[in-house]
Design goal:
The complex is a heterodimer of chains A (about 110) and B (about 110). Chain A contains no helices and 11 strands. By secondary structure, chain A is mainly beta. With about 110 residues, chain B is mainly beta. The chains are: A mainly beta (about 110), B mainly beta (about 110). The interface between A and B is medium-sized, with 22 and 18 residues.
Chain lengths: ~110, ~110
């Protein structure tokens, strides 16, 4: 099983700041990595697939990068609605696995 | 607009069974692999099962193998999860998901 480790567990930033979230895989997943955003009481929403492809309707301030074992989700300038929990997911090997999440909170 | 609507959740005793359904609309259901993903209260996401477009390939997380069965009916645009021998640790919101969209989830509570 591929283990995904997200860091930091919690990130405290202010609106307008840049957010950088990390996801590290225990073995290579090539570019088969997705990022999701989840707000309280809501289902997760796909932000990024294939490491760097923004999903339909996702603002350009969200970007993904990386390949192999190290991936990054960057939010260039935080909006109030971006404060949420973010998960990475690998789609390379069965079983599919998620990271434990990064909570992005308002400072 | 894509819609995935889960149903069938509820309270069940340990050892019991439940069948979840997911009604899909707004996209070509038969062209997409489909998943069930769960989230225990206050916890992270856990992928449960996946089924290929034609139902010929199914994959499961180890903790549900032999107890849960994923299936689909492309004529009805529907996805299913048959859950048997339920345990307290299966308590979670269960989401139906394609690679792009998720439903709102249905809560399964396993308790006596």
């Amino acid at each position: 099983e591929i283990v995904l480790t997200q860091s930091p567990a919690t990130l405290s930033l202010s609106p307008g700041e840049r957010a950088t979230l990390s996801c590290r895989a225990s073995q290579s997943v090539s570019s088969y990595l997705a990022w999701y955003q989840q707000k309280p009481g809501q289902a997760p929403r796909l932000l990024i697939s294939d490491a760097s492809s923004r999903a339909t309707g996702i603002p350009a301030r969200f970007s993904g990068s990386g390949s192999g074992t190290d991936f990054t989700l960057t939010i260039s300038s935080l909006e109030p609605e971006d404060f949420a929990v973010y998960y990475c997911q690998q789609r390379s090997n069965w079983p599919l696995t998620f990271g434990q999440g990064t909570r992005l909170e308002i400072k | 607009e894509v819609h995935l609507v889960e149903s069938g959740g509820g309270l069940v005793q340990p050892g019991g069974s439940l069948r979840l359904s997911c009604a899909a609309s707004g996209f070509t259901f038969s062209s997409h692999r489909m998943n069930w993903v769960r989230q225990a209260p206050g916890k992270g996401l856990e992928w449960v099962a996946n089924i290929k477009q034609d139902g010929s390939e199914k994959n499961y997380v180890d903790s549900v193998k032999g107890r849960f069965t994923i299936s689909r009916d492309n004529a009805k645009n529907s996805l299913y999860l048959q859950m048997n021998s339920l345990r307290a640790e299966d308590t979670a919101v269960y989401y139906c998901a394609s690679n792009y969209e998720w439903g709102q989830g249905t809560l399964v509570t396993v308790s006596s």
